[in-house]
Amino acid sequence: MSNIILELKEITKTINSNTILNCVGFRLQRGEIHAIVGENGSGKSTLVKIISGLYTYDSGSILFEENEVSIKNPSDSIKLGISVVQQDPFLFDHLSVAENIFVNNLPVKNHLLKTINKRKMFHKAQELLDSMEFPIRSDIQVGLLNLGQKRMVELAKAFCQQSKVIILDEPISSLT
Q1: Judging by DSSP bridges, how do beta strands 59-64 and 67-69 pair with one another?
Q2: What is Dmax (Cα atoms) for the chain?
Q3: Is-contact 176 148, C-beta < 8 A?
Q4: pLDDT 10s digit of each residue in the chain, 176 long?
Q5: Residue 133 backbone zone (phi > 0: left; psi -120 to 50: alpha; other: beta)
């Protein structure tokens, strides 16, 4: 078994007759940490949006754990085990911090009635926030948080999903 978890081969993306990415290749092995550096407008965020399923690519291929995959939407990416923290937080302002962290995996109290175990959800979310040393309460509404705190919630959400790959697109640009 190969140690390569994610591989992009000759990814090309054109927007309004502008070639944003031209035959881009990328390979990530288990346990590796990479940083992609480039000028504004060089296609870094576009590449992240392709991996996360927010954008489709014009040509090329994506392999995940050696299998060619089609990532057509964020749900496809999440199912594979890829978490992405975008430049702009994608949270539900009307929900609590805990509800946002567990939005894809709410702890269920009764599987038949599909009732949510709120006590467990708030407790686990608070444990996660505390372990990351984020000074945020899990029961507060996300709409009341500043941008930096929302970034912290996004990071906690990504780590909570126990993903195989976590991609951070300038996640700390608004943090002190």
Answers
A1: antiparallel
A2: 52
A3: yes
A4: 679 999 999 999 999 999 999 999 999 999 999 999 889 888 998 999 999 999 999 999 999 999 999 999 988 998 999 988 877 778 999 999 999 998 877 767 766 777 888 899 999 999 999 999 999 999 999 999 998 899 899 889 988 887 899 998 886 666 66
A5: left
Token code pair at residue 124: 């686990």
List the structure tokens of 161.
């999903």
State the amino acid at position 28 in one-letter form. L
Tokens of 54: 């927010």
The tokens of 106 are what? 């709410």
**In terms of C-beta distances under 8 Å and separation of at least 24 residues, what long-range contacts does 132-135 make, across chains too?**
132/156, 132/159
Give DSSP secondary structure letters for 82-142: EEEE-SS----TTSBHHHHHTTTSPPEEETTTTEE-HHHHHHHHHHHHHHTT----TTSBG
pLDDT score at 14: 95
Structure tokens given for 150: 């929302």
